[in-house]
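Course assignment 3, question 2. Fill in each field.
Student: A.L.
Task: Predict the tertiary structure for the chain below.
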Amino acid sequence: MRLFTAIRLFSLLAGTVQTASTDTANWFDKPFGMFQINLREIDVDMDVNATADFIQDVGGILANYPTKLDFQIINPRLQDRASGDLVQDSLDAARARGLRLLARVDFSKVQRQVAEAHPEWLYISPNGTWQNHTNDLVSVCPSDAWYQERIFDILDEITDWYDLDGFFVNWAGFNENDYFHVYHGVCHCASCKKAWDEHKNGKELPYGPEDANYREWKTWSDGVMDEWTRRVRNFIAQKLPHAGLILGASSDILFYEANNAIHREIWHHATSETVIRLKSERPDTPVLVNCASFLDHAYRITSEDPHHFAQYHVQAISRGANPSTYIIGVPSTIPCPGFEQAGEIIRFHRANADVYSGMPSSALTALVMPPGSQVGEPHYQTEALSEYKGLYKAMQELHMPFDIVDHRYIVDMAETGDLGRYRVIVLPRIGSLYDEDAEALDTWVATEGTVIVTGAIRTDDNDVPQLQSLPASKMRENITDTQELTYEWKNGSTGLFKELGYAPFAPPEYIYGNIQIDERAVGIGSYGKGKAVLFTAPVGWGYRETGLSVFRDLFELVLFEVGAEEPLPFNFAPQMEVTVNTSGNNDHTLN
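Answer field:
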């Protein structure tokens, strides 16, 4: 019997237009579909041939198996399988049908007996506690030997035994939050303390996002994971040159899981939004969208609404991503009413692979995702999210094709020249930028770009805005009750519209005062060859919170005034979502 990892390892059959035996180099650079099954410990008796037949019409098989190494635990149910090797059985079934097989591994946690034997590997909260999970699993830290050494022993064993087509490494990182969305803080294990001290020379290791050094820690910890990802990628490439890696921002295939959960608001644009962002950051890297057939976390046995499930798949392919259907358990054990629609979309994607190859966006406008605007971020800010989503919704309804740019990648995109694809960049309630981000944006404006800022932006001790390109020389006042900002304007700048004076909340006979005053609603100024636009009120927040179309109309008027362009004109109802791509005959409209 081959023994293997205690970490959950399972495979995914990627139902691609290629066969598994030919053209294996960079198979993932061509359109493909995937079917992911999260196998449970009780699923080791899976009929691999029946499962592969089921998948062949849609798009992966998976298995758990233990290892010879002393820090692993064997699934005792494997002894009941005739071959004792579910992975090899799955691989044989895949190859017989021209399907590819990828392995999914999760290194983020270990069993309690492993944790007790190697406490130095574990995540330690600022108050000195472990991060415990269901079934006695314990979170580990990327700084110590588990990530840095032992994982490579596991990968060495896998790649020696199995000629897999790729790897999906799940949940890798510094786990500040657990499965139950409880925030535990920055890891304070001995390895983290030592590495942070060497990196920051005595600066205090932060506890969480409220601490002064947290942003520096986040940049440092992201760098640790990026370096580890490069090591994993190089290791797998040496052992299995044809295999693709799904892991983080520097992997061969970028990944997003499209799912819905009880604890958060449904944002129906989430799949489109994320694919746009990933393809903006790395336009030549394939994106995989894992469409969950169930509700997330505590409700994983509850099926997703079929139409919402289909929406994940349609938004994925329309933006140039590869669709993956994601289930728990062997097919047919847990009902999923959305399989028929999902299968239809994936088969359509497969049949039109020439259309879906490449598909770079032709948008000339970019909307920047501000710090703290992503659900799940420890420093999540509802105000930033509201401003961002309001502008997203406005531009989507105006049929203004746009890309999403994560604020963390502004400098990288400026250095690669990818920022130069855009003529307009919108910053919604951006708050505090890193100095190098501000410099990159100012340089981009000076070379004929147009930047539009809505909501608050950081000012220095003298109230001077962080972006030098803005038409304001100084912020005079920030009225938090109304989120209104007043500025001193630079000579030569111009204004659009005027603000209304404050109308008091009072008995009706005293509600007056809302007349035009000498304060600009919008300021516009030149900077080098470009221009900058500054809204004195958060129009995105206004549209998101009130639904009043006048906010959207104001934003549209300003976009038109500053010369924002659409690659193609559209005259659809506002609820129609439009994407425009330049690869072949692949313009899309989504309802």
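Instructor remarks: Confidence is low (pLDDT under 50) at residues 1-24, 60-70, 375-380. Residues 214-239 form the longest helix (26 residues).
Grade: pending
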